[in-house]
UniProtKB/TrEMBL annotation:
<dbReference type="InterPro" id="IPR018148">
    <property type="entry name" value="Methylglyoxal_synth_AS"/>
</dbReference>
<feature type="binding site">
    <location>
        <begin position="34"/>
        <end position="37"/>
    </location>
    <ligand>
        <name>substrate</name>
    </ligand>
</feature>
<dbReference type="GO" id="GO:0008929">
    <property type="term" value="F:methylglyoxal synthase activity"/>
</dbReference>
<feature type="binding site">
    <location>
        <position position="12"/>
    </location>
    <ligand>
        <name>substrate</name>
    </ligand>
</feature>
<dbReference type="GO" id="GO:0019242">
    <property type="term" value="P:methylglyoxal biosynthetic process"/>
</dbReference>
<comment type="similarity">
    <text>Belongs to the methylglyoxal synthase family.</text>
</comment>
<keyword id="KW-0456">Lyase</keyword>
<dbReference type="GO" id="GO:0005829">
    <property type="term" value="C:cytosol"/>
</dbReference>
<dbReference type="Pfam" id="PF02142">
    <property type="entry name" value="MGS"/>
</dbReference>
<dbReference type="InterPro" id="IPR011607">
    <property type="entry name" value="MGS-like_dom"/>
</dbReference>
<feature type="binding site">
    <location>
        <position position="87"/>
    </location>
    <ligand>
        <name>substrate</name>
    </ligand>
</feature>
<feature type="active site" description="Proton donor/acceptor">
    <location>
        <position position="60"/>
    </location>
</feature>
<feature type="binding site">
    <location>
        <begin position="54"/>
        <end position="55"/>
    </location>
    <ligand>
        <name>substrate</name>
    </ligand>
</feature>
<dbReference type="InterPro" id="IPR004363">
    <property type="entry name" value="Methylgl_synth"/>
</dbReference>
<comment type="function">
    <text>Catalyzes the formation of methylglyoxal from dihydroxyacetone phosphate.</text>
</comment>
<feature type="domain" description="MGS-like">
    <location>
        <begin position="1"/>
        <end position="139"/>
    </location>
</feature>
<feature type="binding site">
    <location>
        <position position="8"/>
    </location>
    <ligand>
        <name>substrate</name>
    </ligand>
</feature>
Length: 139
């Protein structure tokens, strides 16, 4: 499965803790991240992560594009609800696209743990059917 990992600055330490704790699960999957988050995860855990641009420079939009192409299966986006972001429209767009395409999305650590355990238990396997179908009518 393709898993996107994104964390705003004040949530990056939490993301590292999550990736460290769930490394055994994450290394079974293809990992993608916005720029700084990806660098931090790779340095801290040794996991292989495909890095996009930094969030404020378009990384959220790149991941959104993958979602719209049916190329992303899980999104973990530890966003900061207490800070204003210059790229707030991009953040909103990524979350919106996850909902448009029914992609499992966690926006806090509590849900992220449940989602990773569910991923490991096969609860996201239905995505393989969608992937095989190629195009689904979400309209
Ligand atoms: O801003 C972000 C998501 O909106 C995250 O970007 P970075 O991982 O580059 O810090």
């Amino acid at each position: 499965m393709k898993v996107a990992l994104i964390a705003h600055d004040r949530k990056k330490d939490l993301m590292i803790q999550l990736c460290t704790a769930y490394k055994a699960i994450l290394e079974e999957h293809e990992l993608f991240a916005t720029g700084t988050t990806g660098t931090r995860i790779m340095e801290a855990t040794g996991l292989e992560v495909h890095r996009f641009k930094s969030g404020p420079l378009g990384g959220d939009q790149q991941i959104g594009a993958m979602i719209s192409e049916n190329e992303m299966d899980v999104v973990i986006f530890l966003r900061d609800p207490l800070a204003a972001m210059p790229h707030e429209p991009d953040v909103t767009a990524l979350i919106r696209l996850s909902d448009v395409y029914e992609i499992p999305l966690a926006t806090n650590i509590g849900t992220a743990e449940v989602l990773l355990r569910g991923l490991d238990a096969g609860f996201v396997d239905w995505r393989e059917f969608y992937n095989a179908e190629g195009s689904i009518d979400f309209g």
